[in-house]
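# step 3/5: fold
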Amino acid sequence: MKFESTFDENGFRPRINLTLAQIAKLIDGEVVGDPSIMITGISGIKEACEGDITFVANPKYLSLIKATRASAIITSKEVKEAHKPLIRTENPSLAFSKLVSYFAPDESKIEPGIHSTAIIGKNVKLGKNVSVQPYVVLCDGVEIGDNTVLHAGVYIGHHSRLGNDCLIHPHVTIRERVTIGNRVIIHSGTVIGSDGFGYATVRGVHYKIPQIGTVYIEDDVEIGANVTIDRARFGKTHIKKGTKIDNLVQIAHNVEIGENSIVVAQSGISGSTVIGKGVILAGQSGVVGHISIGDNAVVAAQAGVTKSVPSGETVSGYPAKPHQIAKRINACVQRLPNLYKCVKEMQRKIKELEEELKTLRSRAI
């Protein structure tokens, strides 16, 4: 499909020229309103102008439908009507992403080949259509799968293996003997396979414990910028397929994270902890070592998990507790200033009563 676009201080704006009916066909949606209306642009709901199509996925933002200047809106099937034309879909966010992908240019596409400044070690195996950009270092025994892209400054240590269709952004470090599956995306500044934090303390001196394990990352994992995933002391640190890891996350040695979990920015997971599948660790959450978090559990933002969490449980606070209990505790904490005033007033009255009682006793004598 042919497209045009603009890029300025307001961001990237794909320009299109399709009817609402044509767009609905592309994203498998149902039109509510005039199907012949022309759409000329794609934008967020707050930034949208006349002629644009936008979307609302979260019900708490439905009020923005009345305020947006967009000419049409992609919504969920629960939205029956609005004062603007709609395209109703099963998943508005996914449908909108699909629409953008039709028209957004892939300006980051890199042609296959090995740049002259790349350093390639002995017995390195490169698959078909691999792209090795400037100043990449591939140590001895490295294996790279088909269609994988290594951006500038990537370092891959001895005997590490990457699968097919991986995208490794600039200045990623993948240490020795690490295994990475297919379609894995790793963003800039991330270090995979750094030494686990292990020391033996003798008479106040910390002696380093060798970390001879590895890291194994399965298919379809995405890892954000400046993430550190430590290698195991023995065995492996294991990130299972489909898991998404945000920026600035620390994952310690021998951690296991189950399939399709989400770890949000600035979270930290201590050594030998097992995270189930479908788990959400919200931003700045912390998990101690040697515990487990069950499947589909949710750890709220800034929660500190000090003991194992059952499957399906939502926990918050520090130390983390079931969310409903944590909310009640927090509500009590918020009332402490009033409680303090009440206690001080009670103390004052008790003191007055004691003085009166003392006076009465002295008179009786």
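# step 4/5: annotate
Residues 113-324 form a domain with the UDP N-Acetylglucosamine Acyltransferase; domain 1 fold (CATH 2.160.10.10).
# step 5/5: archive (pending)
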